[in-house]
User: Which sequence fits this backbone?
């Protein structure tokens, strides 16, 4: 038998195998692994002729039963981290259905996946084109067996504003000569020029990151909105909005916005539903979301995170310190340590006077004790007193005590006068520890502000999360006017602040910024796990950061869309002291002294009543006293 006859015998078995050999060796060697879904119902057995089947990155997955397809495929993807797939006609539909669900659940992800689908006729892909793989992946190759020795090679259009799933003929392969007709790139780069392809992006207005509005007469429309959006604005701006526009300009795509104003960031749930931006992305209503999104670990299993766009510090504006007027004012002139020494001095003086009185008269020791106690207070308060001391040492000791009492009472009076004259304020809230210790209520319009510290076991963070309130803008504004509620804000990378529109010049009259951040985070963009542009966007972000242009973008966005007065008040305002001029004293200023008076009168009344009862018990036969 000559070579020609042998070739004819091996046509069916060898030509497709040779084609797959070339595709894998040329286009798939850089992938982590290539998984081949063998199916015994296919006409041919290629295993004996595949020269690359023993290579580490090529894995054969044999799926025999449709009922076990999902389990087998999931195990194969999790164990082998498949980045490329070769699927035969009978398994394409079930593969796409299973893959659509599996890729969302598997933690390992790649920016680009390669798919090779082998069919006898293109009609077999009629229903498969509705799956997201054909919409989202640019690297799809369809091998159609035209004849026993000729195979036509197709790919999806992917780029362009319409018909992204349309198949385009790339080349044809002749098995007899092992040649390609056009020698085309079977996996062409479709991402450099997207030819106006829509990039559906989830956003909402949050200054200065994202601003969506109607264009004025000087501005033209630069985006389109998707049906169902909360806002029909067609002009996008802001720090991250400008980045998205620049990225689309570089790759020739069109931004289509899905605007979610009501729920803002929202939440994503384990059953792949959700609310707000996160919910729209997990439900695949959008491709990417951008609006001050942080590096939230809890959402990473659902999404793909981009490179860091910027750093932000989360802090708060809190009520300004109030004047320290309370019942503790009489204690303010002396420190705690000095009061301890004063107590010790009074005890020593009382004991000394009592012992002196006892030395001259041993009778009625209780009377001596009370007399010594009152004498001590008289001396310390600068009052005259009568002490029957006759010896010179006793007189000198009492004289020294009078001098000490005079100095103490004058020092105390001067200190109390200064506290009443010069305004004294409570300790300001400048750290997260103080914010938690004072049980200060604070809040914003979304729970996303505390996502980064929620779930921690640290006492301070747990207290902050417990005191956080998720309220509407109107409720936050009204609470801000009371001067008893704090608001979360962001300290941006270049010195400006991101604050909600409920923080106005009126509310800032009662608030001031904390000196230290509660925590810091990194802002980024989120996409679904297989978004093919993630590598291009990461490269774009790194180039933008290297240029330093983000400083200018932040400055421009703040100047255009933020309240400059509020920005200045947040930046430099530290106290709410309307005036330091002398003022008339009020009841709160002498409240502590009044409490001492009330305590003394109450004690005197109790003693008086006690003496009455005591006298009546001792003299039961007398009716008058």
Assistant:
């Amino acid at each position: 038998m000559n070579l020609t006859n042998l070739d004819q015998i091996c046509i069916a078995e060898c030509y497709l195998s040779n084609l797959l050999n070339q595709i894998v060796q040329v286009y798939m060697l850089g992938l982590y692994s290539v998984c081949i879904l063998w199916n015994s119902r296919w006409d041919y057995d290629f295993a004996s002729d595949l020269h690359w089947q023993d290579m580490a990155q090529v894995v054969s997955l044999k799926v025999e039963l449709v009922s076990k397809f999902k389990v087998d495929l999931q195990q194969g993807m999790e164990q082998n981290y498949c980045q490329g797939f070769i699927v035969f006609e009978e398994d394409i539909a079930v593969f796409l259905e299973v893959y659509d669900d599996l890729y969302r659940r598997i933690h390992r992800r790649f920016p680009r996946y390669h798919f090779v689908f082998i069919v006898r006729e293109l009609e077999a892909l009629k229903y498969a084109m509705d799956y997201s793989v054909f919409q989202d992946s640019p690297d799809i190759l369809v091998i159609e067996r035209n004849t026993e020795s000729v195979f036509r090679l197709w790919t999806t259009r992917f780029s362009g504003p319409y018909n992204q799933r349309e198949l385009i003929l790339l080349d044809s392969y002749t098995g007899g000569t092992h040649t390609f007709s056009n020698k085309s790139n079977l996996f062409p780069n479709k991402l450099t020029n997207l030819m106006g392809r829509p990039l559906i992006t989830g956003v909402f207005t949050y200054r200065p990151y994202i601003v969506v509005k109607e264009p004025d007469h000087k501005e033209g429309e630069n985006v389109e909105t998707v049906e169902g959006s909360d806002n029909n604005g067609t002009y996008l701006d802001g720090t991250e909005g400008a980045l998205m526009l620049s990225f689309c300009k570089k790759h020739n795509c069109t931004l289509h916005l899905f605007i979610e104003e009501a729920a803002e960031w929202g939440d994503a749930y384990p059953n792949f539903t959700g609310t707000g931006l996160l919910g729209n992305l997990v439900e695949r209503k959008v491709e990417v979301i951008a609006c001050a999104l942080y590096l939230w670990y809890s959402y990473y299993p659902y999404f793909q995170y981009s490179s860091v766009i910027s750093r932000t510090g989360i802090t708060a504006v809190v009520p300004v310190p109030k004047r320290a007027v309370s019942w503790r004012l009489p204690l303010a002139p002396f420190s705690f340590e000095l009061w301890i020494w004063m107590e010790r001095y009074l005890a020593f003086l009382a004991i000394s006077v009592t012992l002196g009185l006892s030395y001259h008269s041993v009778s009625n020791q209780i009377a001596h004790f009370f007399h010594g106690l009152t004498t001590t207070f008289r001396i310390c308060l600068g009052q005259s007193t009568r002490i029957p001391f006759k010896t010179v040492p006793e007189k000198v000791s009492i004289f020294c005590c009078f001098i000490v009492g005079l100095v103490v009472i004058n020092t105390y009076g001067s200190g109390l006068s200064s506290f009443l004259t010069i305004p004294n304020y409570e300790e300001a809230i400048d750290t997260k520890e103080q914010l938690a210790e004072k049980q200060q209520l604070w809040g914003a319009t979304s729970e996303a502000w505390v996502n980064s510290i929620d779930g921690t076991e640290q006492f301070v963070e747990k207290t902050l999360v417990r005191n956080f309130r998720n309220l509407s803008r109107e409720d936050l504004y009204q609470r801000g006017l009371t001067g008893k509620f704090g608001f979360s804000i962001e300290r941006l990378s270049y010195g400006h602040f991101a604050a909600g529109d409920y923080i106005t010049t009126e509310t800032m009259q009662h608030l001031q910024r904390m000196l230290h951040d509660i925590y810091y985070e990194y802002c980024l963009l989120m996409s679904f796990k297989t978004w093919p542009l993630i590598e291009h966007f990461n490269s774009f972000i790194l180039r933008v950061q290297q240029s330093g242009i983000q400083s200018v973008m932040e400055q421009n966005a703040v100047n255009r869309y933020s309240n400059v007065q509020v920005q200045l008040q947040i930046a430099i305002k530290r106290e709410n002291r309307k005036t330091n001029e002398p003022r008339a004293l009020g009841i709160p200023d002498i409240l502590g002294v009044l409490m001492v008076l009330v305590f003394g009168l109450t004690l005197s009344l109790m003693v008086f009543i006690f003496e009455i009862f005591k006298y009546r018990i001792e003299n039961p036969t007398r009716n008058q006293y």
